[in-house]
Design a protein that fits this description.
It is built from 17 helices and twelve strands. By secondary structure, the chain is of the alpha+beta class.
């Protein structure tokens, strides 16, 4: 009876206003969640697909600071005004109990329908929510009163925020986040695991330098400039390469590259006894610190397949081929002429043997190890030399971060292989299949030129 007597027409119109304010709060809450969950990349995909509202969406997400403050301001304004009006009506209708009724209404109704429900829907349907509200938000963000007030409040907030007045402008997606995205995409069956591996290889490709992929100097197969063309051709056929470096005096003075097809033409043309230097082509030189991505583009533009790698002193550090670069992207490339070369060889009891030229990062990935990476070494053999501080004798071991590394096949001051076992770490395990050579297989010759 009290409700019937005290409730007036004016109270009814106030409740109608409250309804529209809560509806406006719900729409703005939907906009806040939907827009903030949409990345620039996703907005571009939606725009490219021709989705309605995608153009406005892309413009908004490119500058989130432009819409976030106005949206939050209007959400707060709608909820505060709605709460105040409900308090006025409740006090008029229920008297002293009106405060309790208004509080209950504000906590349950405004939170439930003005915040929780629209935000939960936006989380589950981010694209639909963002496309739905983008044109509306773009319109009121440009509305002069809203723009002026929000700009003023943003300016005050920046002054009060530690770290200066200029907002941080970092990259939206880091490389590590992108790698994590590919892992999630595989779990959700959006891409295949092989595609993930290729994406990982492409990202790592940009950070790789020539020294990490080159054929090192001790493995080079090269010929003196005065060697007869026929002899060089026989040597090329024996090792199975189509391009071989030619030097004058010593290996640090590369004067050209001998092509097998040029040697064949020279021998068939009656120049079998001529020096090989007469048939060589110019060599291309690159520093060992050059990144492989620009080198790959240079090889494509210059149409050459082999480059001589030089160190900081101008000496020959090794060579790098187009095949070496491509293998960094797609993995090892073998043909019918390649003998099987051992990679990781299980020795039993949690021990493994790896070639000394294998990269430390690759060993860590294959065996689940945590060997240290450093600027002074790239390979597992280089790590042993750096930590030992001298050329180890065969069988000599060192302990690095809980792993025992044993030098094996030491010959002419060079480590051929390294045996590994965990000391203060969990037992090493092979985490993926590797091409382990058969005991009787002969190792493949060094890749210092393209295969015949």
């Amino acid at each position: 009876m009290l409700l019937a007597v005290s409730f007036s027409t004016g109270d009814g119109w106030i409740l109608v206003a409250v309804f529209f304010l809560i509806a406006g709060s719900a729409m703005l809450a939907l906009a806040e969640t939907g827009l903030m969950r949409t990345s620039r990349a996703r907005a571009k995909v939606l725009e490219d697909s021709g989705a309605r509202g995608a153009k406005s969406l892309r413009k908004l997400v490119e500058h989130p600071e432009g819409f976030l403050a106005p949206v939050l301001l209007l959400v707060l304004l709608c909820q505060l005004v709605a709460a105040t009006l409900v308090g006025v009506v409740a006090a008029h209708v229920f008297g002293p109990l009106g405060v309790a009724v208004a509080t209950l209404f504000e906590v349950v109704v405004i939170f439930l329908f003005g915040e929780a429900v629209p935000k939960q829907w936006a989380v589950r349907h981010a694209d639909r929510a963002a496309l739905l509200v983008a044109p509306v938000v773009a319109g009121f963000v440009r509305f002069p009163p809203v723009r002026v007030v929000s700009t003023l409040l943003i300016g005050i907030a920046r002054v009060l925020t530690p770290g200066g007045r200029t907002p941080h402008s970092g990259s939206e997606v880091t490389e590590s986040e992108l790698l994590a995205f590919t892992d999630v995409a595989v779990e959700e069956a959006a891409i295949e695991s092989d595609e993930r591996e290729l994406i990982h290889s492409i990202l790592e490709f940009g950070d790789t330098i020539v020294r990490e992929v080159m054929v090192p100097r001790p493995d080079l197969v090269a010929f003196e400039a005065a060697t007869l063309a026929e002899q060089v051709l026989e040597g090329a056929i024996k090792v199975g390469f189509s391009r071989l470096p030619v030097y004058s005096g010593n290996i640090d003075n590369i004067v050209g590259i001998a092509f097998t097809k040029d040697l064949v033409l020279a021998v068939r043309g009656g120049k079998a006894d001529s020096p090989v230097v007469e048939t060589t082509r110019p060599a291309h030189f690159v520093p060992e610190t050059k990144r492989v991505a620009p080198l790959l583009r240079e090889m494509q533009r210059g149409r050459f397949h082999l480059a001589v790698v030089v160190d900081e002193y101008g000496g020959t550090a090794g060579i790098v081929t187009l095949e070496d670069l491509i293998e960094e992207l797609v993995g090892e490339i073998s043909d019918e002429y390649d003998a099987v070369e051992p990679t990781v060889e299980p020795l039993g009891d949690g021990r493994f043997r790896v070639p000394s030229i294998m990269g430390v990062d690759e060993v860590n990935e294959l065996l689940g190890a945590e060997l240290p990476l450093g600027d002074d070494w790239d390979t597992i053999g280089g790590l042993v030399l750096a930590i030992a501080g001298h050329i180890p004798e065969e069988g000599e071991s060192i302990v690095v971060d809980g792993y025992r590394l044993i030098a094996e096949q030491v010959e002419s001051q060079r480590i051929g292989a390294v045996a590994m076992e965990a000391v203060d770490r969990p037992t090493l395990e092979l985490e993926e299949e590797t091409a382990t050579a058969d005991a009787e297989s002969s190792p493949a010759p060094s890749l210092d030129g393209d295969r015949l």
